[in-house]
Amino acid sequence: MTAAPYSLPRGIDRPRVADWLQRYGVYAAVAALLIFNWIFTDHFMTTDNLRTQLVQVSPVVIVALGMALVIGTEGVDLSVGSTMALASSVLPLYLGYGLLPSLLVALLAGILVGLVNGSLVALVGLQPIVATLALFVGGRGLALVIADGQLKQIENQNLLDLGTNSVIGIPIVVLIAGVLALLVAFLVQRTTFGRQLVAIGGNRAAATLAGLPVKRVLIGVYVLCGVLASLAGVLATARLTASDPSSLGNLMELSAITAVVVGGTPLTGGSVRVLGTVFGALLMQLLHATLVTHNLHDSTAQMVQAGIILVAVYVARERRSR
Amino acid sequence: MAPPEAAAAQSAPPGPPSPPPAPGAVLEAVGVSKRFPGVVALDDVSFTLRQGEIHALVGENGAGKSTLIKLLTGVYRPDDGELRLAGEPGAFHHPHEAQRAGISTIYQEVNLVPLMSVARNIFLGREPKNRFGLIDFPRMHRETAELLGGFGITADPRRPLHTLGIGTQQMVALARAVSVQARVVVMDEPTSSLEPREVETLFRVIGELHERGISILYVSHRMDELYRICDRVTVLRDGRLVHSGDLADTDRVRLVSLMLGREIAEVRRHGATSFGEGHTADRQPVLTASGLTRRHQLQDIALELHPGEVLGLGGLLGSGRSETAKALSGALPLDGGEISVGGRALRRLTPSAAIRAGISMLPEDRKAEGIVPGLSVRENIVLAAMPRLSRAGIVSRQKQDRIVEIFMKRLRIKAAGPEQKVGELSGGNQQKVLLARWLCLEPKVLLLDEPTRGIDVGAKAEVQSLIDDLAGEGLAVLLISSDIEELVEGADRIVVLRAGAVAGELTGDDVEENALLAVLAETGDSDDGDSHSDFGDSTDDAGEAPEAEAEAAAGPQDAAPGPLTKTTAPDAPPESAAGTGTGTAAAPAPPADGEPQSTPDTPGGAGSATAKEDPR
Amino acid sequence: MKALVKATAPAPAPAVAGDAPLPVTADPRPSGRQRAAELLQRQGVLAVLVLLCVISSFVFDSFATLDNTRGITIQASFLSIVALGMTMVIVTGGIDLSVGSVFALGGVLAAWASQYGFLPALLVPLAVCGAIGAFNGFLVAKAGMAPFIVTLASLLGARGLLLALTHEGATTYLVPRGSAFKELGSGAVWGFGYPVLIALALFAVGGLVLQRTSFGQALFAVGGSGDAALLMGLPVARTKVLVYTLSGLLAGLAGALNAARLSSGVTIIGVGMELDAISAVVIGGTLLVGGAGSVSGTLWGVLLLGVIQNLINQIGSLNSSYQSVVSGGFLIVVVVAQRYLSAARRGT
């Protein structure tokens, strides 16, 4: 009989290409970049250089993982950069008690930020952009107030080790980012929390009627994002060997959103692509490094980055429209 | 499928490639086709709207009505064929080109800007300017008041639109459509959300337009309305033209059979649903609700549901049927009332608490409140049951697969596999997936809000017999349906709601259409429905017709060609007679009745009381 | 009924459980409470601003002085011009994140072009920034991409362009001494700088455009219900392209004026300015979902942010970073209050 209007098999070429691009484009692009550099760039495909690239991208990956979760619920978290600064600013205050207590305090700051964001989104019902804008503005201010506007050198050797040491040849920072990516992937794919998160992003009304704990999950997602951002702040501080709340994490929200979007997670929610996000961050990092080693400037890198974002979103859009 | 009958065959063949423009034609579509990926929405359809006529456009779900309207009004462009405006070939690339050409459209759901004032909405895009080139608000408000006053509506032009009743909003949309010097007004189910009295006002306005010689394309599912006001009719089915001609020559049963593509005898045969005999219910109720109250929506509703019975919930649009179901499932906060399941009162009324207590609800709007389109069939089925199918927060695929397999088999869900995305399934299969979602919770009470709306016939029959089986197995089912036939045949007992309160209950042999209609019609303020309402339950192509058909039963009572036709026929004979004369030699327009020139189309206060505010 | 609910719920996704269909029959006359809520929503910021100013002038001797007022207004003028464009964009339900970068780019372009005279110094930034805005608008309107992400890309792209122009930020163009362009930034009438007067004039025009022209009505319609606007035959795409172009133009103009005032094209300014502008707009009562808002509210919002900053400077002992803490806190209060006020207005 007649087919219902939304049961159309969708498969003319453009959407199919777009679909493929959204799924695998980021991996193909990373591979292409690596091959390009292998051929044309001296000293690029060396262990040292690759290790440096990975170390540099790690904080972005960690923040982007949290951002991917938030975007999966059809939200966005603008406050991640400020959260990094906040975590960095509280870190030196408690280093006297040892690494662990100060680390916990820094993570607590992330939890608090997430709780505020999550409550504004889930309980008050604000748009995520507005809800997280407040802490974007206020968070860094608070960090500066806490640090009294000053840069503080980090003396704690344990913390510094975190930034520089390696385990079996892999830098700790990279290791942490990798493990977190696996954990988040597991969370998204195999836990009720993760699946509920995706369902809420896909159709919030349906999730509510199906009895899902929508508010709890939403708050949880923002808290996770805050915790991941604060952890990234700690690691970035360790690498910098200083707590610098005025510049740490600046524009991080943009890098994280870029990584997520380029990785193929739609801004409209309902899907979280963890591996894609990791590769999205990696792509932007490699691209930047490639351009710089070929004597192209930051300015070019930024414009290329802008172009890639547009392409990624355009592809996602193409795929959505039948 | 049944082969198209002779009548359809006779008018179905497409005309020659470029027939001469029909005389008196205002707007024509000649052999237009429109394809969407994977589906042909319109296939070589020719259509003529003549000067000054009221032309009915009918068809079942997916027949292509909406697509045709969108082609005529510039929202879509045809893939093949051409449009002609007053005999001249033309195409609209944008809705505003169509509007500039004098084609106005009123959509089923009011398409105005809710936050803007009435006057701003009416004049949006063509605001009157003063000599500084700025908008002249005093003049705009004055003209708005005059315009609305002409329709018998008094509404403050400065009021934001969303503060008005939905009927008044529809009138504002009509006022806007008319005020742009329209030659053609397209109305897509304009009465679907109107109260009966508002429908009267609308018809009066249509009558006035008709007198001015404006052509109207009128889309509706309601037979009464069509026969009351329309001159000619075009029937679409599965994207093809099956009939076009004078409405007076096509009686109701034939019209219905054309729409459905079924034999007349088949349509006449009573009992087209797949429900079996009644069930034997337990004495002890499994669900008891009392005093359910919510301001403006529900008043002191009390219900009992017994294991093994199907309780029908009847009522007209706005009677509180869906709200009652939502309240029972914890999705609608209540001002007061108590719900208990198996003798234990629910303390907190939230969807999750209700689900834990064993109440499951299949929501009315499948797309907006049901499916998660991007997730797979498997995940949609286990969505609500996820916590039960996991350990320590970690999902168990084995448990899921077992459940999903059982339900996909039992409900005969047709999908490429459990991993196919639900958004890619047909409406009927989506509905089955949702049913599976609720059934795998093993509920004690199942609330079904319009379970068969907008799904194809085969799936409909399957869902109906499934409801039967479930009740047979001892489940308590609450069935809401605007399809009276479905309600009467499916339910063992029917509680009828009116204005948010229980108006009556039908039990035993009283569960039949006439008794139901009698209860529905008990008070004078809402006229009863007609027995054809069961054909009005197909949702429109757009798939978004919440409540649209719910009021199907609320159509005005007079089934005979109504008074409006009388007034319009004599008033506009030159054009419409000329038009019809060319088509069929016989029949001078609609059936000419007595009372020439009379304008009793608004007997009593129905017209003047109008759509100002709703009575309740 | 569903349509009505959708229509009357412009606020961001309310908790679904409470999202029940509104009764068609609810008394449509606004109640006293609804009126009060509406008044508060419209004029609340102004009231807070006035109150704050009155209190401050008692507490701080140096607050209510002409000098201080001049200082606050000149500080606020650049942000206000940017926020004016942002208001229009947000009324259409969009957002423009690129304004901070465009502001900086406008300044650099103006300083660079000022060597060729007054007109180039003004027209070059307007042309380039207007083009960036048009590009944003084109992608939003024609390609149907999310404004958030399009303008995010422009934020990066404009900043990249700026860096390319300034040799990776190494070059700072200076406005030549004695240039007429310099006068535009430093000149004053009764001590109020030209930028302040220009901003006021732009707000007056902007108010008229928004409230009294067809273009303004189209902005509200597009933001209030894009589908309806399209079906009513409004030129939705053109309106969107225009509004983003306008936002780019205004941001570029603000940047040029700022360059004239500083007599150089500073490369590192404007970072995060888009968020300040959005804050001001939101504080001013414009709904981020579109369809409602006012230019005057934005002006009060900008001034309020300026006054808060000024007060924190007055309390000499306070770290200047308190300003963003206070603004952030204030933003939360305002948006939460708005959320409940618009609920009260809808009588739910």
Automatic annotation (TrEMBL), chain A:
Its record classes its membrane topology as: Multi-pass membrane protein
Residues spanning the membrane: 20-40, 52-71, 91-113, 120-147, 167-188, 217-236, 248-267
Give the signal peptide range. Answer: none
**Keywords linked to the UniProt accession:** Cell membrane, Membrane, Transmembrane, Transmembrane helix
Which GO CC terms are listed, alphabetically?
A: plasma membrane
Name of the featured protein: Monosaccharide ABC transporter membrane protein, CUT2 family
Where does this one sit in the cell? Cell membrane
What GO annotations for molecular function exist for this entry? transmembrane transporter activity
Per UniProt, what is one Pfam family of this protein?
BPD_transp_2
Q: What is its main location?
A: membrane
Q: Which domain of life is it from?
A: Bacteria
**Lineage, opening ranks:** Bacteria, Bacillati, Actinomycetota, Actinomycetes, Kitasatosporales
Automatic annotation (TrEMBL), chain B:
- Highest taxon listed in the record's lineage: Bacteria
Region Disordered: start and end of each range?
A: 1-23, 523-616
Q: Where is the ABC transporter domain?
A: 27-263, 281-524
Where in the cell? Cell membrane
Q: Which UniProt keywords apply?
A: ATP-binding, Cell membrane, Membrane, Nucleotide-binding, Repeat, Translocase, Transport
Q: How does it sit in the membrane?
A: Peripheral membrane protein
Q: Which GO terms describe its molecular function?
A: ATP binding; ATP hydrolysis activity
Q: Got a GO cellular component term for this one?
A: plasma membrane
Principal cellular location given in the protein's record: membrane
Which residue stretches does the UniProt record annotate as biased composition, category Pro residues? 13-23
Question: Does the record bear Membrane in its keywords?
Answer: yes
Q: Acidic residues composition bias: which ranges?
A: 537-550
Which InterPro entries does the annotation name?
AAA+_ATPase (IPR003593), ABC_carbohydrate_import_ATPase (IPR050107), ABC_transporter-like_ATP-bd (IPR003439), ABC_transporter-like_CS (IPR017871), P-loop_NTPase (IPR027417)
Protein name, per record: Monosaccharide ABC transporter ATP-binding protein, CUT2 family
| Organism expressing this protein natively | Actinacidiphila alni
UniProtKB/TrEMBL annotation, chain C:
Q: Give residue spans, biased composition: Low complexity.
A: 1-24
Taxonomy, superkingdom = Bacteria
Subcellular location per UniProt equals:
Cell membrane
Q: Which InterPro entries match?
A: ABC_transp_permease
- One protein family per Pfam: BPD_transp_2
Q: Which residues cross the membrane?
A: 45-66, 78-111, 117-141, 148-167, 187-210, 217-235, 241-260, 281-308, 320-341
According to the UniProt record, one GO cellular component term is: plasma membrane
Keywords assigned: Cell membrane, Membrane, Transmembrane, Transmembrane helix
What molecular functions are annotated in GO for this chain? transmembrane transporter activity
Q: Which residue ranges are recorded for the region named Disordered?
A: 1-30
The membrane topology noted for this protein in its Swiss-Prot or TrEMBL record is: Multi-pass membrane protein
PANTHER family, A to Z: ABC TRANSPORTER PERMEASE PROTEIN YPHD-RELATED-RELATED (PTHR32196), INNER MEMBRANE ABC TRANSPORTER PERMEASE PROTEIN YJFF (PTHR32196:SF63)
Its recorded name reads: Monosaccharide ABC transporter membrane protein, CUT2 family
Q: What is the lineage of its organism?
A: Bacteria, Bacillati, Actinomycetota, Actinomycetes, Kitasatosporales
